[in-house]
């Protein structure tokens, strides 16, 4: 059995002493889904005459509000009155019920409604409702409604993976760029350290230079000074770069030579 939309009667048993007006209003919204069935709302409305909202509530179309009578006053008198009303409705053939309460004493009402022909019962209560009470119903709604976690769809997961991959790729590119920016300084440092090697490194650089066509006059130069005759085209390129960098020719050549030696050492 399910509580689907039909022409059958749906009864709402409202524990007015233990459930606020908002919980009743929430349940009426749930019950509206099963209309055009007739909905009977049962409680002791006169027990809360200060609730002016009852008048507006009872004017809602599609709902019948029934006043119950207590056979005695005192503790559990409302429970007993609702129990009697539930029996009456059950005898009338009603098999679909909402029970609004967090009171575990209402378990006996649910048991009675399933005693002969099973009923379909939906409970509405707070999260403090006991497991015994919840298990007595076919369904149970917690009030106020608990927020359900949004399920991540496959599309969302793929998008998140792509975003993570893009961020990782961006980080790698930034690291490579930073590494390239640091290399020239490292090369200069290595070239300075290479000055102590007076034999192997100058020889390698000398091999890279073309033999001079004309013999230059011997000039006494400071120790560690290297003289190289450059081709005209190379010298012109160096002069252009010298002008662009704003340094002397000696400084430019020294820097380029040391950078070349540093790469040679690394290889």
Automatic annotation (TrEMBL):
Pfam families: NYN
Domain (NYN) ranges: 10-142
Recorded GO MF terms: RNA nuclease activity
Signal peptide: none
Domain of life: Bacteria
Matches recorded under InterPro entries: NYN
Region of interest (Disordered), residue spans: 189-217
PANTHER family: HTH OST-TYPE DOMAIN-CONTAINING PROTEIN, SLR1870 PROTEIN
Record protein name field: NYN domain-containing protein
Species for this entry: Selenomonas ruminantium
